[in-house]
Amino acid sequence: MNYSEFYSKSINYPKDFWQSQASQLDWHTLPKNILSKDKHNYNQWFKDGELNLSYLCIDKHIKDGFGAQNAIIFDSPVTGIKAHINFNKLHKEVSKLASGLQSLGLQKGDTVIIYMPMIPQAIYAMLACVRIGVIHSVVFGGFAPHELAIRIDDCKPKAIITASNGIEIERIIPYKPFVDDAFSKAKHKPKHVIVFDRKLGVEIPKKAYDVDYDNLVETSDPIEAIPVKSTHPSYILYTSGTTGTPKGIIRDTGGYATALKFSMQYVYGIDKGDTFWAASDVGWVVGHSYIVYEPLLNRNTTILFEGKPIKTPDASTFWRVISEHNVKVMFTAPTAIRAIKKEDPNGELLKKYNLSCLKYQFLAGERCDVATLTWTQEKLKVPVIDHWWQTESGWPMLANMVGLGLQKVKPGSAGFPVCGYDIQILNEEGEEVKAGVEGYVAVKLPLPPGALSNLWGNPERFKLGYLNRFPEYYFSGDGGYKDEDGYVFITGRVDDIINVAGHRLSTAEMEEIVASHKSVAECAVFGVHCDLKGQKPLGLIVLKSGDISKNSSIQNEIIQNVRKDIGAVASFRDVLVVKRLPKTRSGKILRKLLRNIADEHSFNIPSTIDDVAIIEEIKTIYQAHNIGIHK
What we know:
The protein is an alpha/beta fold.
């Protein structure tokens, strides 16, 4: 069946379509009530079904005779450790830890915060929780104690599972002291803090609430997985909110498992037994879905990588991992590719490795500029596929669904709507716009299985943030347009659309042109206040390593390129060279922060920022060039 037929069936007959996909799973109780309403009058999937994610990710494969297959390959260039963990070993670790959690009084419906680095025990902890119906909330390792305390007070965990430390290239990140600090700051007090000692010589401060991870596992007997309702929350994952207070996205169990199983076959085109690598972190949605649950659910070997695209030890590390571990499909963020490109613009380091195993390279997490996609395609010589989704969706919303046949790649587009997502572009009045007209990206309800089911403890915020803007639609918060062929182009968050003298302009479009300049490694274009025109665009660029061209000539060339491609209406006259751009720890450029530094005397510093020192660096640049309030 081709994409158009398959997609149309998912939109026109959603119950039949998703019932068929759900039947691919090994349910404890097969669902008959496919789509219904919950107590908040919101859609829910497979209400009467029962299953267990941990069982599907581990026990099912052992039962089918694949216990000796590698489930996880742990590759840690920061410690020099490599480990192969098969499904039998995974079962032992997870089932004993789950038993240990029960012995501490945890039961179905309780919550646990997992605050761990990229080590196997983080995956064990997630799978142990869902094995007994405990709802986990993974907090990205290295989050400041204040942010951790906010999450403790919001989801009220009975226990926290942590480790002695993480490693950031060569720097030790002390996890346990952060947990103790958060514990003291939080109003809610978890009963236990379970600590895994990595035995790297890091001192672990002892507290009365501490439980030794190794001892807990060693003294516990394996237990079977407990079936839970399809609608039972598998996890809570916090994402930043516009109010500054994190939003706790709730993911169900049955719908999530159905969607993930579907996506591996049809979106990523990967077969059972193949090796899949999502170069992300378990603290983010990509890590939840495509490091942990989906590869294991589909009986793929997943790569757990503790390192960076550069400096661990150099810009060849991604290519080494792909070659050494026979990776068939890889998924990373464009920012990782740009970092590699900056260090090795000609791809010389890539030539050392045989990458014939790689079939597809997927990019997501932020908008992918054409220059990055083109460079990756040229160097890897495989299809490079940009796709788009959100923490809220849990799995891809736009993609080139290679499992249904690879379609033409249009640089700048994230492809077509994925099955189940009736994506429309709306104007201010909620009306669909014509092809080529930019508007708000929304999804007609019901959302397919796997998407968020609500916000933890805040159903009103859920309605206000996602449902009220356009009745009968989920509002993504992004702007975009469809072309005449149906390809969808995401132009950025709606607050990345700037108004210059009454003209609505996309900073993403300008950024595309800036990024295409041969000397630019990374860039950001955003709107800043202008007394005359309301807003004007400002571009910040990071130059490629070793580029000795004159800054002024590069700046002038970029300005002329934007003027040529967009026109004088863009009012694009300011391009500044910087050493680096502020990013989140997952690598996303903080464009809103760059705008706030220019326009606001006081502003919130995002909790996810990688290095707060960069704020002063940017202020100094702004002051030197009289940008915004820095005149």
